[in-house]
Amino acid sequence: MPFGCTVVAIVLLTLGITTPGAAQYIVPDAAMKDSIKKEVTKAMDYMEFGQGEDAMRVWRRIIDMDPGNPAFRYEFGVSAVLARRYDTARTVVEPIYRDSIFRDQGYQLMGMIYLYLQDTLKARETFEAGLAKYPKSGRLHYELGSYHTVAGRLEQGMDFWIQGTRVEPTFPTNYFWVAKMHANGPNKIWTLIFGEVFLNLERNTEKTKEMSELVFRTWNAGMRLGDTIDPINFAHDSLLEKPGPTGASTMPFEMAFEYTAATSAQPFIPDNGVLPRLTMQQLVDLRYRMIAQWRRSGYDTLYTNSLIDWNIELQKSGWFKEYLRWLYSWGDKKEMNDWFLKNERRYDTFLAWFTTNGMKFDKPLCLGLGCP
After folding, report:
1. What is the model's pTM?
2. CATH code for the structural domain at 5-168
């Protein structure tokens, strides 16, 4: 499975730098003593702003007040990671990370501490032990995918991420890295599909902006409208030679996707030369035409793909174009802002509708790269 070299370099720099979220197991409530509640709130605030040393100081006071609460020790360990006090984090977390209260995140935190301490073998063993105990953990699939990817075992890493999307469909990070790893390689179709699914799951973070821009850019990178030799290029030639769902007489999904993109793009082909870039409006129109053509061709019954099924639902609802604007909003911020100023009321109505009518993640999705 070929990947882009540039993406691999990015992965080597960025994988595993995240820290498990702060104060996940503690919610100040009426049952908590006021003196502890006040300190917990203070510690949470320090962690929120990455002030690990200050948070550690407060958690020490809290632990002195209630030494039997493992959640306080866990958060102290997270604070120690934020402060880059990894030996301290190890000392505190090792005795408690298997506690059932922390579930898979205890193993994730412990494994990450070992990684920071350059003990990659212990990290791998910890992630694997956690996955054996919690086989439906998306986050442990992500960590093992990252581990193997950084070690240069790209296909093994990708397998963990793909499996992670299936065992825990609501965990967004696996979709993110499946998409990102394919962006500079020959199989850009998976960036388009997995990236769009990620955006439906994680709608308002810095990664949302990054993926919105990446998906918009990848659509343009795979199209050279006006090029008479290779105008559409979203999949490696080897994928296009696979048999279709009913055998050699039908196209594989990847070829059907490219063919539908090519036929739907006909109105945007310039009279002379190559179109350098689709505008957001052109891409929205192209995607709308693609889904309509997909249905007319009967591909919606021939091929199983959860994202395209969702796109068809959106088209039937009358909100598909607004959805696509939302999807690519960070791809061209100026064009999006100009459009929004003219369509503010309808777009706001769409966003209100979208809040309670999103894509369903109640079961594993069939997106390609094998289906559950």
Report:
1. 0.90
2. 1.25.40.10
